[in-house]
UniProtKB/TrEMBL annotation:
Pfam name, any one: Glyoxalase
InterPro entries xrefs: ArsI/CadI-like (IPR049789), Cadmium-induced_rsp (IPR052393), Glyas_Bleomycin-R_OHBP_Dase (IPR029068), Glyas_Fos-R_dOase_dom (IPR004360), VOC_core (IPR037523)
GO BP, sorted A to Z: response to cadmium ion
Origin organism lineage: Bacteria, Bacillati, Bacillota, Bacilli, Bacillales
Protein name, UniProt field: VOC domain-containing protein
Signal peptide positions (record): none
Organism whose genome encodes this protein: Alkalicoccobacillus plakortidis
Domain VOC: 2-118
Length: 133
């Protein structure tokens, strides 16, 4: 098994831990002073949060979870809206050389996460810019 690992610096560990607990629908696998780790199996992800004094800039363009259908996108959107998240929806959008159905949520430090389904790949140049605001 392979896991994608993402290590994020966060300003407020408790606030970020709560965001990701609700976003991923799981409790942390490990909690230490200034550190939290989440392990998911769908998708295979090792996400760590490390508290720092200051988070500057948004070095990450965005993060995402690719699913297998529009129905899965809508299921996760509904789940996260029930958790109180604002989900910015973009259905049938031309993004990153593909037609996609997706929605976005933003974590406490401004990192944008998308759940998306790729309906069709494209070769056109007008789709080179991703739909991140």
């Amino acid at each position: 098994m392979m896991n994608v690992h993402i290590g994020l610096n966060v300003k407020n560990l408790e606030e970020s831990k709560e965001f990701y607990r609700r976003f991923l629908s799981i409790t942390p696998a490990k909690e230490k002073d200034g550190y939290v780790k989440f392990l998911t199996t769908e998708p295979n992800l090792n996400l760590t949060l490390t508290q720092v004094d200051e988070v500057q800039g948004n070095i990450i363009n965005h993060l995402g979870v690719q699913v297998n259908s529009k129905e899965e996108v809508l299921m996760h959107k509904e789940r996260l809206e029930k958790e109180g998240f604002f989900a910015r929806e973009e259905m049938n959008t031309n993004c990153c050389y593909a037609i996609q159905d997706k929605f976005w949520v933003t974590d406490p430090d401004g990192n944008e996460w998308e759940y998306f389904y790729t309906k069709q790949d494209l070769n056109t140049e007008d789709s080179t810019v991703c739909c991140v605001s």
